[in-house]
Design goal:
This protein is an alpha/beta fold. It folds into two domains: about 120 residues, ATPase, nucleotide binding domain (Nucleotidyltransferase, domain 5, 2-Layer Sandwich); about 170 residues, Nucleotidyltransferase, domain 5. The protein is built from ten helices and 13 strands. The strands form three sheets. It has a five-stranded mixed beta sheet. A five-stranded mixed beta sheet has the order 11-10-9-12-13, with helices on both faces. A hairpin with a 4-residue loop joins strand 5 and strand 6.
Length: about 325
């Protein structure tokens, strides 16, 4: 048995074929054409499907369905992407349109949920009765798995942990609220904090790291400066980890998961991120005196989590 999953993103469309042992056999990627018409976006997904199957030496007859993870509010029951600001979708009946185009069953899911499901099926959340996956990217993606099922909420918009407020009246978030966790603990939040620190400290090593260009700042800049003993870099990292720990603590207090995994580019910092993060969370969780504590770890599947999760949605 083979499965095909597609991770539909604002930058790329990544697709892959997964075998019965949940191994990713082949993967393809192409640029997403934003602001496409309904027919054009379906055409892009159909092309990605055919190209990936061809690379694997398979045809549509060899797979039971096509699984797709998309950003935004995805109604899995109706197959409609009700809203996706990054892709400019509004009530897009993607399931129906793509099924008609390819003559194959299509299953839709939110991309963060698909990534969490991938980690549950083949990664860091395996064996968890309750598992939470957090992805630190442009925003904060989150997915909650309970008893092997994705927690989608009554309207399929549940699990958006990035949009819980951790600073009342704080930074403006892209969702329109002020003080969301995403505004502080995403890669975007870290970059903005790094740039602000650099503007205050013209002698910071972060200027040399970025070649004197604020636009070259990324999620690694402050961590690199910290390793060089830079005071401002260290302060940015410490503040960032404090905000990240606040949100992680909230997630644990709400769900008390067996495992909480963290993915995204920032998670690649490893111990300089994870060690102080775990220490802060350990001291802040309401359940600190309980015998059983949530295991906090790095996600295992990287950028492939969404493909694997989408591919296995109907397994």
């Amino acid at each position: 048995m083979y499965y095909l999953g597609i991770d539909l993103g604002g930058t790329n469309i990544a697709a892959g074929v997964v075998d019965k042992d949940r191994h990713l056999m082949v993967k393809t990627s192409c640029k997403t054409k934003i602001s496409s018409s309904e027919d054009e976006i379906c055409g892009q997904l159909a092309d990605a499907t055919k190209r990936t199957l061809q690379k694997a030496g398979l045809t549509l007859d060899d797979i039971p369905y096509i699984g797709i993870g998309s950003p935004g509010t995805v109604n899995r029951a109706t197959g409609i992407i009700e809203y996706s600001n990054n892709l400019h979708f509004s009530n897009l009946p993607l399931q129906k349109l793509l099924q008609e185009k390819l003559g194959k069953k299509v299953i839709l899911e939110n991309d963060a949920n698909a990534a969490a499901y991938g980690e549950y099926k083949a990664g860091a959340l395996r064996g968890a009765k309750i598992g939470v996956a957090i992805t630190l990217g442009t925003g904060i993606g989150s997915g909650i798995i309970i008893d092997g099922k994705i927690l989608a909420g009554s309207n399929f918009a549940g699990g958006e942990m990035g949009h819980m407020v951790i600073v009342t009246g704080g930074r403006l978030c892209t969702c329109g609220r002020h003080g969301c966790w995403e505004a502080y603990a995403s890669a975007t939040g870290l970059i903005k904090a790094t740039q602000k620190a650099m503007e205050k400290d013209k002698s910071s090593a972060m200027w040399k790291i970025t070649g004197g260009d604020l636009q070259e700042v990324d999620g690694r800049t402050a961590f690199q400066a910290q390793r060089q003993g830079d005071t401002s870099g260290k302060a940015v990292v410490e503040e960032y980890i404090t905000y990240l720990a606040c949100g992680i603590t909230n997630c644990i207090n709400i769900f008390q998961p067996d495992i909480l995994c963290i993915g995204g580019g920032i998670s690649n910092e490893g111990d300089p991120l994870m060690v102080p993060l775990k220490e802060k969370v350990k001291n802040e969780v309401y359940s600190k005196n309980s015998e059983h504590q949530t295991a906090i770890c790095r996600a295992q599947l990287g950028n492939d989590a969404g493909i694997l999760g989408a591919a296995l949605l109907g397994e």
